[in-house]
Amino acid sequence: GAVVSQHPSWVICKSGTSVKIECRSLDFQATTMFWYRQFPKQSLMLMATSNEGSKATYEQGVEKDKFLINHASLTLSTLTVTSAHPEDSSFYICSARGQMNTGELFFGEGSRLTVL
Amino acid sequence: KNQVEQSPQSLIILEGKNCTLQCNYTVSPFSNLRWYKQDTGRGPVSLTIMTFSENTKSNGRYTATLDADTKQSSLHITASQLSDSASYICVVTIMDSNYQLIWGAGTKLIIKP
C-alpha cells in the first residue's frame, strides 16, 4: 500500500530555534497534504491543508508565520516550526491524499518535538 | 454545523470479548466515512472507508457499518486482542470543493488480559 514517510521521528531543540519536519509520499503523488498536531491524550487537531504549488490554508488559531508549510512538489511537504518554544512541544503528524479527493488518506508515523 | 461525535469516549474490555464503537455525524453533503486506528505515539492507520451506498465493510476482525439515513456508523471488534488497545477515530468527508474532513474525537479502547 501507499506509504507516507515523515522525518525526523523525534527531535529535541532549544527554545528559540527553528525545526523542519518533512513529509514524503513514497509511491504516489499527493496533491493534498495535511498537517496535524496532537497533544498527549488528545485527538488530532488539523493545523493546515497544503495543496501542491499553492499557499497552505491554516485552521483558525494556527499562526501561519510560526508554522511555515511548503508543498513544492507532489511528493514532499515540509512544516517548519519557527522560534520554537516549550509550548510547541507536541506530536506532529502529516497525511497525504492522492489525486482523487475522495481517495484514501495515508498518514506518516509522526514527529515528536520537544522544545527545551 | 458539520460534526462527528463518537461514543464512548473510552472503553475497557477483557481480552477475547467483542465491542462496538459508535460514530454519529451531522455532515452534509456526505462523501465517505473512514475509521482509523491510532496506537499511542504512532500515526493513524486506515481500517475501513465507506461511501454512501455501502452498509458494511470488514477488515479482519473489524467490521464497520454505515446507516446513511440515520447518519450513524459503528465499528465492531470481534475477539479482541491486546494489540487492539488504541484510539479509534471516525472521520467523515464533506462532498464540497475541498472535500473537507470532519474528525471525531476518538474512542480510547483498552484491552485487559
Order of helices and strands of chain A: EEEEEEEEEEE
Estimate what percentage of residues of chain B fall within beta strands. Answer: over 45%
Multimeric status of the protein? heterodimer
Distance between the termini of chain B: 41 Å
Descriptive terms for the model:
heterodimer, A: mainly beta, 7-stranded mixed β-sheet, globular, B: 113 residues, mainly beta, 6-stranded mixed β-sheet, 5-stranded antiparallel β-sheet, 0% helix
Structure description:
The complex is a heterodimer of chains A (116) and B (113). Chain A is mainly β and 116 residues long. Chain A contains no helices and eleven strands. In chain A, a hairpin with a 2-residue loop joins strand 7 and strand 8 (76-81). The model of chain A has no long low-confidence stretch (mean pLDDT 90). The radius of gyration of chain B is 14 Å and the shape is globular. The chains are: A mainly beta (116), B mainly beta (113).
Write the layout of secondary structure elements.
The complex is a heterodimer of chains A (116) and B (113).
Chain A: E1 4-7, E2 10-13, E3 19-25, E4 32-38, E5 45-51, E6 57-58, E7 67-73, E8 76-81, E9 90-97, E10 105-107, E11 111-115
Parallel strand pairs in A: 2-11
Antiparallel strand pairs in A: 1-3, 3-8, 4-5, 4-9, 5-6, 7-8, 9-10, 9-11
Chain B: E1 4-7, E2 10-14, E3 19-25, E4 30-38, E5 45-51, E6 56-59, E7 62-67, E8 72-77, E9 86-94, E10 101-103, E11 107-112
Parallel strand pairs in B: 2-11
Antiparallel strand pairs in B: 1-3, 3-8, 4-5, 4-9, 6-7, 7-8, 9-10, 9-11
In short:
The complex is a heterodimer of chains A (116) and B (113). With 116 residues, chain A is an all-beta fold.
